[in-house]
Amino acid sequence: MRVRLRYLTCKLHLRPHQEGALKKKVTAFDILRAIKESVQSNFGNFGAAPLLLSMQVRYYDEATQIFILRCPRDSFRSVWAAMTLVTSLGGSITSGNSGGRDSSAIKANISVLRVSGSVRTCRLDAVSILVRAANELEGNNRRPDQESLMAASTAFYQAQISSAIQGV
C-alpha cells in the first residue's frame, strides 16, 4: 500500500523587529527542523513517529517566504496544528532555566495558505501567489489569468532545473 500525501502551501512570517533576523539566512532545513520539533514537543513520540521520516520541504522561496511542505494525508492536521505553534526558527533547544530557544533563534510564525492532494495544484497555487506579489510590487492589482500562470510556472521549473544542473 502506498502512502498518500498532502501538500501544504505555507507562508513564513518573520518578525522584523529582531536584530539578528536580517543577519541569519533562513533555510528550508531550519523550517523543517522547527516543524519537526514542534510536532515532537506537542504530540510526543507517538504523534511524531509517522511524520518524522515522510515530512519534506519541497520548495522554499526566500524572497516571499513561501514554502511547500509534503506530509502524510492521515496526519496533515497534526502538522498544521504544530506549524501554528512554531514561534522561532534556527536555534537549538536550551536545557537551562530559560525553557526556550537560544538567542540565535529567529522569531517567526507560519500560516497555511492552502492544502492540496497533488504537488501540481500546490505548485500552481504558489506560482499564483508569487505572480500576485510581483504584480503588487509593480502597482498592478489585477488577478493573474491562466495563461500568465502557466508561463510563470514554466519559468519556475526552468529556474529549478538550471539551479539543479549548476549544483551538480
Automatic annotation (TrEMBL):
Lineage of the species this protein comes from: Eukaryota, Sar, Stramenopiles, Ochrophyta, Eustigmatophyceae
Family under the similarity heading: Belongs to the eukaryotic/archaeal RNase P protein component 2 family.
GO molecular function: ribonuclease P RNA binding
The name this protein goes by in its record: Putative ribonuclease p mrp protein subunit pop5
Entry keyword set: tRNA processing
Any one biological process term the GO annotation gives: tRNA 5'-leader removal
Gene Ontology CC: multimeric ribonuclease P complex; nucleolus; ribonuclease MRP complex
InterPro entries: Pop5/Rpp14/Rnp2-like, Rnp2-like_sf
